[in-house]
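Notes from hallway chat w/ T.B., transcribed later so I don't forget. T.B. wanted the structure written out for a chain they're using in a teaching module, and asked if we could keep both sequence and structure tokens in one place. Agreed to drop them here.
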Amino acid sequence: MYRRKEGNQLSFDDFFLPFGGKLSGDNRWVKLADLIPWDELEHHYASQFSKGFGAPAKPFRMALGALIIKERLQVTDEELVEQIKENPYLQFFLGLEGFQFEAPFDPSMMVYFRRRLPEKTINDCNERIVRHGKQQIAQNKQGDNDDPDDGDGSVPAALERPSQDAKAPKRHQGILLIDATCVPSDIRYPTDLSLLNEARETTEKLIDEMHKQVRDVFGHKPRTNRRQARR
């Protein structure tokens, strides 16, 4: 059974802290929670449950929020629950109305969260989150454009004549790899056999040079099976 909760878009100002104070609006989890349209995404999750039978299921915000936290922090299910118990910002992100010392769910519940929110549903959630975020950015820009000028008679910066430095062409200083996962394509993997072959050839050259110095003492050079290794 699933009981849909109205008003998933909670305000961090209303989150109760038993030890005093309040949450900061600059926290990353508070900002992320504001970007996610929880009410809009809840419909598919709620349709998987009966309306009048069975034990009440965990709220959608708690299920999706737990999966997001786990992926962002890259922790195990057990460590995830422990961090949620210790962090009021994570509890707010999951939709709790106040800080509690008990875990909101058991680590084994993560198995059911992943089953009820498969990859296709998560991808759909990501697309909706991106669209919602773009709408908020557009609204903020529209609000900035609607602000009247200060009336001091000064020329807006966008209308000022560009300086000579602005007209000068910019010189490129090199190549910047923005994505941390991007690497030049000519780097070989550690499993590349050519690395092993180069190491073998370098070792053989060292043996040749060292043998010249001790030839009179040891006589024959150690066997290395070079011809067989080249095959």
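Follow-up for T.B.: The chain has eleven helices and no strands. Might be a good example for the class.
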